Amino acid sequence: MSHSPRTRTVVSCTVLLVAIGVGVTACGSDGHPLSAKPYDAADDISFNVSADDGKKADPDKPLEITADDSDGRITDVTATDAAGRFVAGELSADGARWHSTSPLAAGARYTVRVSTEDEDGAPGRKVLDFDTSKPTTKKRLNVKFGPEKGTYGVGQPVTAELSAPVKDKAARAVVERALKVDSQPAMEGAWHWVDDKKLHYRPKEYWPAHATIRAHSNLAGIKIAERLWGGKAKPLKLTTGDRVEAITDAASHSMTVYKNGETINTIPVTTGKPGFETRNGVKVVLGKEYFVRMRGTSIGIAEGSADSYDLPVYYATRVTWSGEYVHAAPWSTGSQGSANVSHGCTGMSTENAAWFYENFRAGDIVKVVNSDGDTMAPFGNGFGDWNLDWKKWRTGSALVADAPDGPGPDAQLRLRPESV
Length: 420
Description:
Blueprint: E1 45-47, E2 64-67, E3 72-81, E4 89-91, E5 97-100, E6 109-118, E7 123-131, E8 140-146, E9 150-152, E10 158-162, H1 169-178, E11 179-184, E12 189-195, E13 198-203, E14 212-217, E15 223-225, E16 228-233, E17 236-240, E18 244-249, E19 254-259, E20 262-268, E21 281-284, E22 287-295, E23 310-318, E24 325-328, E25 346-348, H2 350-359, E26 365-369, H3 390-394
Parallel strand pairs: 8-16, 9-17, 18-26, 24-25
Antiparallel strand pairs: 1-2, 2-5, 3-6, 4-5, 6-7, 8-10, 10-13, 11-14, 12-13, 14-17, 15-16, 18-19, 19-20, 21-26, 22-23, 23-24
């Protein structure tokens, strides 16, 4: 039988050069395996780790697998640790070598499954188990996902708080690759570095209604930078409710509320007057407070001035940390639907505010259009994440080619003044 020649990278089958662990003898002293038994290309592959000498592999160095005979080739490699994490890798075009491209975890147990074929296409298979050594440093980067487990509106981002700052772009890439967010139904999404210790994750569009979202970390045991290794993280599961969104038109003094795309209410409102204009853009409900005492001094209004106020406020739905709410404003019912007279909040009748309070949850969308105010900031004053278009959002990822090397947008101060 004739065979077409194959281009091979031939590696000595006597002793494998060691990158991690110790060398493994690739061939016996009796010559080519064909002299003793039917040829199996899996008999002629070498690993740069060993499971038999009691030594543990160095997780700082890549895993390498080599075909030591020109008559066989590697066709597939699967490497996983005991936690089910896969190791990414690259196989050379001629099937002579496979090497890992993602870091190994420290203190982990790995199983490597290698598929091969000989020049006639006959398959072979080899399995190796090995352990990696533990890191010498005790510094760990722990991750806390947010928000708390529960059901949220479709605008709710997933957050990740890191226990230590990560500034270097390469180190950020290691972290980001290990932070996984999956949803049912599946959605395209990305992380955005808010600062050195905080990331937000959102899909390209709002989450679907009644979706399930899971976040988990594969960072444990992974080297991030010198003297910094991945630590623990508790996985998170969220669900979304109906798609509920309020669109407030500051020019027409009207709020329209939609549920799953259908209009369910139209409410006359008042928004911020000149000098106190309500922010434009998308905000996300942060929480609800049945009663809030609001004072003008909390937003810099001098006590006793013409704009000073000190009022009990009911059915207050918070949309910024700096004190913007949707709330009951019985003192301004004469202006609701016709004029903007508030200090930045969206005011409505007590009856309408109670309805809004009952029908909105954290994560639901509150959008303001046609106000003379600034646009809601993406970060630091609540969740303004949706005010970045998708292209701009992705530049905050360490895995995007044109992402900046430094920290993401600076977080604003988390103040809690109240406006009415």
